[in-house]
Amino acid sequence: MTPRWPSALWVVRHGQSAGNVARDAADAAGDFRIALDHRDVDVPLSRLGEEQSRALGEWFAEGEENGRPEIMLASPYLRSIQTAEIFRKAGGCDADEKICVDERLREKEFGILDGLTHRGIEATHPEQAEFRKLLGKFYHRPPGGESWCDVILRLRSLLDTVSLHYGGRRVMIVAHQVVVLCLRTIIENLGEKEILAIDREGDVANCAITEYRFDPAKGRDGNLVLSRYNVTPPMTGEVPVTREPDAMVAARG
Q1: What pLDDT, on the 0 to 100 scale, is given for residue 24?
Q2: Can you say how many angstroms the Cα of residue 106 is from the centroid of all Cα atoms in its chain?
């Protein structure tokens, strides 16, 4: 019988993006808005993000990770697709492996808060800043945007697809920080307090892996078990590890 879950599941945050860099600059300057020339979906990797993605691919190519992914899934956002493509080019998976883009893996949508810094939110939408304090980031949904619960809802559907089509396979997902945390919420059956405690420990590093392995002894029919969280590949030369929040800083607490 085909297992219900992949034999291995790696969830990867994209490499550092130009949006991460722009967010840092906006915070340092005390600006209300992050200076970007693109839609968030079109924000590319930074040069450092490209190097991080290459290092991740080379790490898997060396065979140190108990196998390379057989299935590649990615968010439709450019920075995630570029991370997956560079990973593949570096030998992280077969050169002819198709990168399956799935819109359910997209970044959390911020609605009217899109592109604003924390200072900008408090200045231009003080009522939303207050709602967020009252409700908490897990449940707060800005007008036109999503709460973490909304992201979890679409990711439950995504995991149903993974279970249906990729049982027994090695699967890699390349997406965003909130997606990594929300997938942990579903797979590990975590509550609001548990996942927010993990979030408060620190940002998910760019190109860090969260790894699950299938254990047939867990539960009635076997289950995915967390093997590693927020682990970055060895970086060569001057390629540093980065842990910036995503460009739309409303994702953070």
Answers
A1: 66
A2: 9
Q: Is 176 helix (H, G, I), strand (E, B) or coil?
A: coil
Q: Is residue 31 part of a domain?
A: yes
CATH number assigned to the domain comprising residue 135: 3.40.50.1240
Which range has the top average pLDDT, 113-117, 155-159, 235-239?
155-159
Q: Which residues share a beta bridge with 174?
A: 12, 74
Non-local (6+) Cβ contacts of 233 within 8 A are 55, 56, 58, 59, 207, 209
Residue-number span of the structural domain to which 51 is assigned: 8-251
pTM: 0.90
In a domain, 148, yes or no: yes
In a domain, 185, yes or no: yes
Q: Which long-range contacts (CB under 8 A, 24 or more apart) does 182-191 make?
A: 182/148, 182/151, 182/152, 182/155, 183/11, 183/155, 183/159, 183/210, 184/210, 184/226, 184/229, 185/148, 185/152, 186/152, 186/155, 186/156, 186/159, 187/159, 187/212, 187/224, 187/226, 188/226
Domain count, the chain: 1
209-215/223-231 β-pairing: antiparallel
Residue 69 lies in a domain: yes
Q: Taken in order 125, 130, 131, 132, is the CA torsion positive or negative?
A: positive
H runs (alpha helix) in 96-168: 118-124, 126-135, 148-165
Q: Read off φ and ψ for residue 141, nearest 5 degrees.
A: -120, 105
Question: What is the rounded CA–CA span in Å between residue 154 and residue 42?
Answer: 21
pLDDT tens-digit series, residues 21-46: 666 666 677 777 777 777 889 999 99
